[in-house]
Amino acid sequence: MRIGALLLLVLLGGGLVLVLWVIGAYNGLVRLRNAVRNAWSQIDVQLKRRHDLIPNLVETAKGYMQHERQTLENVTKARNLAQQAHGVGQQAQAETELSRALSNFFVVVEQYPDLKANQNFLALQEELTSTENKIGFSRQAYNDQAMHYNNQIEMFPSNIVAGVFNFEKSEFFEIEDAAERAVPKVQF
């Protein structure tokens, strides 16, 4: 009888340790998933800031660039598509298109010396440059969090808990084309 009671205590103790480990692993995965979501929201804040700056930049340029209507429309269209994008992959693709449109815009701006000297335009340009840098840092922080979270989901033994509770891997915020990885040049 004594051995049976001891065996029961060992089994109960082992079961308790297992339950505590599952709780700890689950809470760790939730914490990492929330860190990824927070990092994504930081990107989203900077992208909104970028999207809010673009109409002001386009409006300032309109008076000078009357013959460049298509360029201005392309920037506006790309901005609108980027604002409507959902999910990491779709957002990355839309932001790539917006970066391309902005690059073309700034190439055209080079042909307008009066616009390049406009103080309002210069201030907006500087703000956009600063925002582009913040977006880059936010993307890096997001990708770091996503990597850490994905590692936990894939590594043994936490992968068991991740599978049981349907934790899904996070996408990385990546730009596929190497030529598109460059930040648009906005310096004159």
What does this structure look like?
With 188 residues, the protein is mainly alpha-helical. The chain has one domain: Up-down Bundle (de novo design (two linked rop proteins)), CATH 1.20.1440.20. The protein contains 6 helices and no strands. Helix 1 runs antiparallel to helix 2, helix 1 runs antiparallel to helix 5 and helix 2 packs antiparallel against helix 3. It is rod-shaped, with a radius of gyration of 25 Å. The chain starts with a helix and ends in a 24-residue tail after the last helix. The model has no long low-confidence stretch (mean pLDDT 88).
Enumerate the spans where pLDDT stays under 50 for 5 or more consecutive residues.
none
Radius of gyration: 25 Å
Report the helical percentage: over 70%
The amount of beta strand, in percent, is: under 5%
Q: Can you count the helices?
A: 6
CATH class category label: Mainly Alpha
CATH H-level homologous superfamily name: LemA-like domain
Tell me the domain tally: 1
Q: Main sheet?
A: none
Number of strands: 0
Q: If classified by CATH, what would the architecture be?
A: Up-down Bundle
Overall spatial form: rod-shaped
Pairing-aware structural class of the strands and helices?
A: mainly alpha
* Helix-strand string: HHHHHH
> What is the CATH topology?
de novo design (two linked rop proteins)
Average of pLDDT = 88
Distance between the termini: 88 Å
